[in-house]
Task: structure prediction
Amino acid sequence: MDLERCLGARLPADYKTIVDHYGPVQLNGHLFLSHPATDRWNLGRWMDKTVELFSGSDLADAECPGFPDGPVFGGPDGLIPLISTDRGEYAFGIVGKAGKGWSILTCDGDEQDFYEYQMPFSEWLHRYLTGEDMFGPGSAVFYPGPVVFESMPTTEVEQSRTWLGPERVV
Result:
């Protein structure tokens, strides 16, 4: 994947599967998942812009697991943006040390602190969609009923379409 070559890191397999099957999509009206093969919602460009935005922020005092001097953004050794919300929340992936796999680190755009979730992206997403605090304490958002998917148009003339996932068991 060209994106992985640019990042200098391989993205988690479960993340790539979800992106390939569903992206670009908005989940439950606020969680955005881009795709690398689209022009309008290009995952690589979004990652680059997000890395640039966060790298330009003064986060030296931020609590960020694994980064005692403040977070570093971009691959292969920094935080790689994976997903965001319209509430200013971001989930980043970081390649684990000593072969521990990936971890998810999240932040709320209004706070400086990052929270670590040592689990695969698919588990993190599942927990988020079932209403757990996955962007830090007090961040839970639960919408009853099935997950609402809304495609994000990839061209000027394409219309978005909405569909429902299966009923969720909490």
